[in-house]
Design a protein that fits this description.
The chain is mostly helical and 676 residues long. It has 25 helices and nine strands. Strands 7-6-9 form a three-stranded antiparallel beta sheet. The chain has a two-stranded antiparallel sheet with strand order 1-2.
Amino acid sequence: MFMLLQKESWKTVMTLAYQSLGVVYGELSTSPLYVYKSAFAEDIHHSESNEEIFGVLSFVFWTLTLIPLLKYVFIVLRADDNGEGGTFALYTLLCRHARVSTLPNGQLADEELYEYRRDEFGSGSRDIGLSLKSTLEKHKILQKGLLVLALLGTCMVIGDGVLTPAISVFSAVSGLELSMSKEHHQYVEVPFACIILVLLFCLQHYGTHRLGFLFAPIVITWLLCISTIGIYNIFHWNPQVFQALSPYYMYKFLKKTKIQGWMSLGGILLCITGSEAMYADLGHFSQLSIKMAFTFVVYPSLILAYMGQAAYLSKHHILETDYRIGFYVSVPEKIRWPVLGIAILAAVVGSQAIITGTFSIIKQCSALGCFPRVKITHTSPTNKHGQIYIPEINWTLMLLCLAVTIGFRDTKHISNAAGLAVITVMLVTTCLMSLVMVLCWRKSVFLALGFMFFFGSIEILYFSASLIKFREGAWVPVALSCIFLVIMFVWHYGTIKKYEFDVQNKVSINWLLGLGPTLGIMRVRGIGLIHTELVSGIPAIFSHFVTNLPAIAEFIRTERADATDSNHDVREDFDNDGRMSVVGTASANLEGGIRMCEDENGFSSELQEIAVSIASPRPRKRVRFVVPESPQINTGVRDELRELMEAREAGNSRGPTNALSFPQASTLEVGMVYLV
């Protein structure tokens, strides 16, 4: 920890830890709203012996201790991929250390760009580690299976991003049931929850930095509130509740409740919803800030809150209705309404963690060619590269979340769905983390197997309890995952074919320079940049561009002219399918050409071609394109040229050129249809 503090100042760490409370831990902090209610929804009777309530508390305590604290804080958070976290980050980390990527970028030039070198194993685990690495690299079926596993976890995170906001907001507004009948409450709850959800997603464009400072005071107030109420309930109702921290009560609980107790584990599982968000949101903050916030603030507050609820319920065995075993019944009546207001605000914040985590994971998938390109907006004023916002994903999540909220209208079915999504992500993380230990960290294979067996056995127990509720809502994350898996696989297949085409059809710089004089290419002042995944060679799209579209403007200007007109200074050659392939003569002496004018002591010259992504060497000057009002140009041609210039000055470009701060007037997006 001291070495990490040398890289990050205390001020930076504490600021990020403060922000992480508002972004990362909102979901985990609001879990006391619905855990006990969900756990006792499986026909478990709250008896005078308190074995049921103490058993649930024991499960909650040890689950919180082993999964979020031990697994994620002390182990998984260390496995970052250049500061990024999440299920897909583990996959990309494996791809850097072994040739397990299905994308055929295993050329020597590609490997030299990798952030991590593929060092050999140490003597301790050389034989087994090298054998595992060699097996994965040789068998394509294993590589595809690894990709499927990573994408499955990613899709479940997206599904969690749909379900978590719904259950958080629903549980918060459930406090209204204490002041009205259950029938009236149902009519108020759904519209109120939908309004809150719409407002939540509308705030996302402000970015993690602003939302962190805005939401952090709410989460801190909420944690202080539930921990204080917990302490009060412990000492006022039952100080003996500390006995339930013994694992023995878990055994007594399962022995007494049998199959109902096993099924109730799906509700107990919800106490760790948001744990995966700690890892998924790693790119938005830092390891140390996330660890400090959870260990010293979130974890003790949650334990006190759950113990306080159990202490109250241990002295109140007869409840008026079956749905009042939730959080609010344990809140002292005098402060119940203020707590309800804070809970609603905290529930809104609670949805933030998984939403930002979804943004990060989608970004990682898109970078590796497993998701369609989307607009990624960097929101950090201090250039924290991981703090991003993706509009398309944001509004998609909102629509799906509203559909789930209106469709189910209760927390039971939504909690069943959210539980399966959460535990599936954790199982995938455990499997991939075991491989990371061996292939990336060079740890003993037996240590990796011990990690997978210990945490995997716990998660499989919860997974089985969640899967049994497939018909009661758990089918939702499965259906969403199937849809997103199809999208990802189709896009990844196209990415592979495109890359293979580029590799097979790339050309050398000498070939291109040799074609220059025959094509009539005119050199323009500036630098042309082409975005490509190839490390060496010129991609096919550029050769396609220079041989088929050397002068766009001239083509528009002359396409309506008579082909037999001898006054034309431009020679047009057409290939067999009628496309203009070569324009030979420059248009510098032609009237009606397109001029690029530069303001303030600049230059004015006529250009023959519009190049790809030309960045001015002096970006401080403003560049504009002018279509002269020449009588030799008819109205239709002038309108087309003006539209072309407007499109050019608008940029028509997404993330890459914007990220490099190219002037929009100096960029042009060029597409090409790949026949694969």
